[in-house]
Amino acid sequence: MAAIQVVRSEWTKIRSVASTVWTLSLAVVVTVALGMLISALSRHEFDKMSIKDRLSFDPTFISFAGMSLGQLAMIVFGVLVVSNEYSTGMIRTSLAAVPQRGTFLFSKIAVATGLALAVGMATGFVAFFLGQAMLGSHRASIGDPHVLRAVIGGGIYMTLIAVFSMGVAAMLRSPMLSLGILMPFFFLISNILGNVDATKKIGRFLPDQAGSKIMQVVPRIDDDTPYGPYGGLGIMVLWALAALLGGYVLLKRRDA
Amino acid sequence: MIEAVGLTKRYGDKTAVYNLSFQVRPGAVTGFLGPNGSGKSTTMRMILGLDNPTAGQVTIGGYPYPKLPNAPRQVGALLDAKAVHGGRSARSHLLCLAQLSGIPARRVDEVLGVVGLQEVARKRSKGFSLGMGQRLGIAAALLGDPQVLLFDEPVNGLDPEGILWVRNLMKALAAEGRTVFVSSHLMSEMALTADHLIVIGRGQLLADMSVKDFISANSADFARVRTPDTEPQLREKLTSALTEAGGHVLPEQDGALRITGLPLPRISDIAHDADVRLWELSPHQASLEEAYMRMTQGAVDYRSTVDQKSGLMQPLPPGAQPPMPVPGQGQPDWYAPPPPQQGGQPFAMPQGQPGPYGAPGAPGAGQPNPYAQPAPAAPQTPAAPPQPPVSAASADLTKPEDAR
């Protein structure tokens, strides 16, 4: 009962601010455009590649290359959906109307997650098809083994990035603080940790590195990752759930 | 009915609210007064279940807020007029609140009409003035047509017309049998709006009584006496004579004396016996504002000091006097000065008035609305600039009866 009311209200909230349209369309455009660019460049580079690189050439994964930037817009979307309540002070009005704080938080996140999933899926398929078009003769087909899993996984990956951000924002409350931590983390720190030998073993359990495994079709030759595509996605789901749980516990305990 | 019992809230080692017990009854406007930082907003948040009390409890209709069945239809609140997403239109803001509480969308247009925001309903609230924001907040509080209403500083930023509107709205809501709890730091506004007062300072209860009782309990009558400025020794003489007769004498900034504990005719007799001429002997009644300031003076958290402006001052030209600091609330023993005497009859004695100082009864409670009066004092003060309604109201309160 209360959940339905919150869902309806949150849908109105999310529709009536400009930041929703901006962040989500930016996520689509950046992911697709950058994916197309890198796909086009890869086609020209292919002939100059070493045998090893040609063997592990993964056209599906290359068409998702834009996600490294596009996910940042998803992070902004997730953070703003939750922290707007705090930065405006509307959280007090909202919690006075729905004193069941868990119902409020999870209904809110459900609405935003649904929207992120729709946009993420559309992004995944568009990025795949346009990216393959750019790859020309090196392209993969949607009917090839594991390719459909990778494309749907790409949509889920973007959704989970948004959900994780929502959980973090629910814990931190401030949009500036949340973005200030999440943006450099996903753009820089995670990549550094994942590529330096000393920290590689830890780095690959970070949410984005584990989750992006679902988008790989051709494994790298010297790949020693201890989990498969679904295992990686599972790790990312655990991260998102942990963030949500943290946000819920803090919201429940804290003075609004 | 809102009932608080032993309500206490601590943030770390700072106690925001301590052992607060009070009842807010239906059918009346209850004013919630206190200086800034005295715990008014914290108490309001605890009533709404947003902050958890450290000790004690507060209930609405017998339930703690989170357990109240259908809470948003029972209780409406304006906590912060700025608590609106600036990019959202007024209508969308109210619509999402209505949907959150299961209130039909047509009610949104109704309350927009009630607060007079129909014209700007589809504009982004970013461009709203503080007054429009207050109206939007009040609209949100009215959405569920609730029996219990809480307003935190509802008149902040409103123009005189808006203040009058809020005042009438509060009274109308209370007249319909609703519980109306309004916080403010403006005593003069509450004197006109509220029936009952709850005053807190530093988080503790200072008073819980009707406005009428509050005035008679807290506003002391006094007489103002001025001896000839040219002969300061007369002032000393009169002071000692009055003190001997049992009066309490306080010198005022402008050289006059404020005397309590002696009736006016007796002061005149004593002056005559002491052979002191008087330039002024006038009755005064401390305003509600003064009563409130006296009561909360020990409980003010934020005090101003005199601005020293060291290093910023121009050297004074030779022979010039340094300017006297303007008396302000931050200085000890300062109360709101009585307003200047109304023109025409500055030294007139009251005639045939009951009460020791000729200013009987308790103004304020039965005070007619200053807007409703077609400026009764206007002919007497042709030179006075138009006063804002709040100070006009407080001026009315201290005016001697005969000058009205």
UniProtKB/TrEMBL annotation, chain A:
<protein>
    <submittedName>
        <fullName>ABC transporter permease subunit</fullName>
    </submittedName>
</protein>
<feature type="transmembrane region" description="Helical">
    <location>
        <begin position="230"/>
        <end position="251"/>
    </location>
</feature>
<dbReference type="Pfam" id="PF12730">
    <property type="entry name" value="ABC2_membrane_4"/>
</dbReference>
<feature type="transmembrane region" description="Helical">
    <location>
        <begin position="179"/>
        <end position="196"/>
    </location>
</feature>
<keyword id="KW-0472">Membrane</keyword>
<feature type="transmembrane region" description="Helical">
    <location>
        <begin position="61"/>
        <end position="83"/>
    </location>
</feature>
<feature type="transmembrane region" description="Helical">
    <location>
        <begin position="150"/>
        <end position="172"/>
    </location>
</feature>
<keyword id="KW-1133">Transmembrane helix</keyword>
<feature type="transmembrane region" description="Helical">
    <location>
        <begin position="104"/>
        <end position="130"/>
    </location>
</feature>
<keyword id="KW-0812">Transmembrane</keyword>
<feature type="transmembrane region" description="Helical">
    <location>
        <begin position="21"/>
        <end position="41"/>
    </location>
</feature>
Automatic annotation (TrEMBL), chain B:
<protein>
    <submittedName>
        <fullName>ATP-binding cassette domain-containing protein</fullName>
    </submittedName>
</protein>
<keyword id="KW-0067">ATP-binding</keyword>
<feature type="compositionally biased region" description="Pro residues">
    <location>
        <begin position="315"/>
        <end position="326"/>
    </location>
</feature>
<keyword id="KW-0547">Nucleotide-binding</keyword>
<dbReference type="Pfam" id="PF00005">
    <property type="entry name" value="ABC_tran"/>
</dbReference>
<dbReference type="InterPro" id="IPR003439">
    <property type="entry name" value="ABC_transporter-like_ATP-bd"/>
</dbReference>
<dbReference type="InterPro" id="IPR003593">
    <property type="entry name" value="AAA+_ATPase"/>
</dbReference>
<comment type="similarity">
    <text>Belongs to the ABC transporter superfamily.</text>
</comment>
<feature type="domain" description="ABC transporter">
    <location>
        <begin position="2"/>
        <end position="227"/>
    </location>
</feature>
<feature type="compositionally biased region" description="Pro residues">
    <location>
        <begin position="371"/>
        <end position="389"/>
    </location>
</feature>
<feature type="compositionally biased region" description="Low complexity">
    <location>
        <begin position="342"/>
        <end position="370"/>
    </location>
</feature>
<keyword id="KW-0813">Transport</keyword>
<dbReference type="GO" id="GO:0005524">
    <property type="term" value="F:ATP binding"/>
</dbReference>
<dbReference type="InterPro" id="IPR027417">
    <property type="entry name" value="P-loop_NTPase"/>
</dbReference>
<feature type="region of interest" description="Disordered">
    <location>
        <begin position="309"/>
        <end position="404"/>
    </location>
</feature>
